[in-house]
Amino acid sequence: MNADLLFELGCEELPPAPLQAMAKELGQRVSDGLAELGVEAGEARIFATPRRLAVLIRDVADRQPDRDIERRGPATKAPEKAVAGFARSCGVEVDALDTIETDKGPYYVFRGQEIGQPLADILPPLIIESIRKLTTPKRMRWGSLDEGFLRPVQWMVCLHGHTVIPVELFGLTADRLTSAHRFHAPEPIALEQAGDYETTLFDHQVIASFEERRKIVAQQVKRTAERAGGIAQMDAALVDEVTALVEWPVALSGQIDERFMAMPPEVLITTIESHQRYFPVRNAEAGLLPRFVTVANVESLDIQQVVLGNERVVRPRLEDALFFWEKDRKQSLAQFGERLDKVTFQKGLGSYADKTRRLEALAATLAESLGADSDTATRAAALAKADLVTDMVFEFTELEGIVGGYYARESGEPEAVAGAIAEHYQPRGPSDAIPATPAGRVLALADKLDTLAGQFALGNRPTGDRDPLGLRRAALGVLRILLEAEQPLDLRIALAAAVAHQPVDGESDTPDALQAFFADRLRGLLADQGMGADVFDAVTALELADPLDIQHRCQAVRSFQGSAAAASLAAAHKRVRNILKKSGADTATVETPLFEADAERDLFDTMSRLAEQVTAFVSQGDYAAALEQLATLQAPVDQFFEEVMVMADDAAVRSNRLRLLTQLDALLRQVADFSHLSG
Predict the structure, then answer these.
(1) Cβ partners under 8 Å of residue 148, min gap 6
(2) Which GO terms describe its biological process (predicted)?
């Protein structure tokens, strides 16, 4: 008989970060396990709260189905002892075996039926294996148990319909008793049947579904902020975290003392969001209001006391921040910078003062290449790391750079310098914006390139999934700045400059390794834009060093790829490259008197006519126009290979034809190496 299947693992409060992933993995493992066992099952739902992980699967059969089995044994001419042993392993006499004809002759075969096992027998091992294999940050042990889990397990529920399946794990035996809200419903609750799980918990102040609870959190926070006269700033990650911290969300609004509003809004937001898990409230003009929204896990009889408690908790954090803000501003940012020589950047790479000098030199080089104001970029580079020794950044490390921008303004630095300092860590992640100002982009590039060059020179290169220094993120940041700001830059030259400024000689392959590292990151970025691997390979085969130029070429080649001319030229270019690879390219001048066929002359004339136009379009970066011209080569190229034997008996004719193909190869490779294109 089919019935709903429920398994719930009840724990002490689980950390919020891995909660969703663990619940999804548990549901997937149990569902996949039932499928592998052949047990009929319907849709699976997962549940996750701070105190539980659960999976509910609809319409699960109460046993495995019986199945026909067939086992092939030894050949009929095998020794009797071998045949008897095979029959014995199948639980039958030799007379009960059938025979089957194969291409190697007749063989004994056993045909029978395997009786399916009851769910009550096969589910406990599946549940235990799923829990043991569950990905968790770090397992802990408690009591005298050898088994461990992320947090101590307090109870387990396992029901198939109305029936308890007694899974034994962590010194507990699963039954039908669950726990609801710690304060609103502290006594154990007996579940009548598995399908009652979600509604029973809801009746006892637990919203078991993470998705439903998240919707309620977002709705309540939005409405509460509106009642407070503003708009809630709801960071998606914070909504997830708060959802993982509560079982029965109740949003409340609190007040911030006006005197704290003199601080930069980023300081207030960091205190409210990162340290207290509160939601800031803004006005219609996006200005910060002296209000916040917090989400409690209880419906209090005295809401005002809960609000006052939250206000009392956040006040000391804001007091500290205000103290740092006022104290730091008694010095100029440049005075803080004088202390950087006492702060180590990295062993082998000197102090932050050393890094600052490298940034100044590299920023000057990049400003010239990128058309930014060199004086602004170098002044911003000189002050970029000074805020690292301020009390504010020591306490709020995530505000590095941002605090420096404010302190630069307070110190009387130009706005362009302050803005560059504030945004030079951008983009901080895949969803963060790139720097908005030219000097900010130059400084961000210099900072990231210096870090990459230094770490690669020391041999600290990412391997596998490991990247503790965030070098992949830094490289992606460089590429995003160049692509999104449409800034052309010869990355090979920029990397060479960054490596040259390092205080260590480094490994000999550092520049090449960095170039390959960036190529891999660029491949991924362009793949996200829909670029095929063959298109990327066709363009990068030219050993280009400007990411923006590579992107533009890839976009043009991708558009061109679907045409008939592209397929024909790709096939012809493959043939050309193979011929030149075997026979060698010949860059000498083509001699027209040696032409023996009209197809040779037609191809040469078409190439001669196109060469100047294609070169002009390529120099302008108009690769679509260049490809449009190259497409006219389709007919003469096809005719050439149909009518002309390249490897002619006459050595002079053969050499001349190889020269013609060498010129054709060079003409095509002005845009891309079409031999890499598929299809």
Answers:
(1) 139, 140, 141
(2) arginyl-tRNA aminoacylation; glycyl-tRNA aminoacylation
Clarify whether residues 59 and 186 are in a common domain. Answer: yes
CATH number at residue 442: 1.10.3210
Contact 265, 288 (CB under 8 A): yes
Domain boundaries, position 590 = 554-676
Token duo for residue 214? 């998240």
In this structure, are 280 and 316 located in the same domain?
yes
Please tell me whether residues 422 and 493 are part of one structural domain. yes
For 367, the token pair is 């400003």
Instruction: Please report, as a single letter, which amino acid is at residue 172.
Output: L
Name the pLDDT band for 68 (thresholds 50, 70, 90): confident
- Cα 154 from Cα 179, distance rounded (Å): 9
Q: Is residue 617 part of a domain?
A: yes
Helix (H, G, I), strand (E, B) or coil at 551: helix
Confidence grade of residue 679 (pLDDT, cut at 50, 70, 90): low
**What is the SS3 assignment for 93-116?**
CHHHCEEEEECCEEEEEEEEEECC
- The one-letter code for the residue type at 574 is K
Residues 9 and 148 in one domain: yes
Using the 8-state DSSP alphabet, how is residue 7 labeled?
Answer: E
Alpha-helical (H) ranges within 68-209 are 80-89, 119-133, 197-203
Q: Percent of the chain beyond pLDDT 70? A: 100
Q: Does residue 57 belong to any structural domain of this protein? A: yes
- 384-408: pLDDT as tens digits: 999 999 999 999 999 999 999 999 9
375 and 496 housed in the same domain: yes
CA distance 347 to 343: 11
Q: What is the pTM of this model?
A: 0.82
Nearest one of 536, 520, 527, 640 to 590, comparing CA atoms: 640
123 is written with which tokens?
A: 């589910």
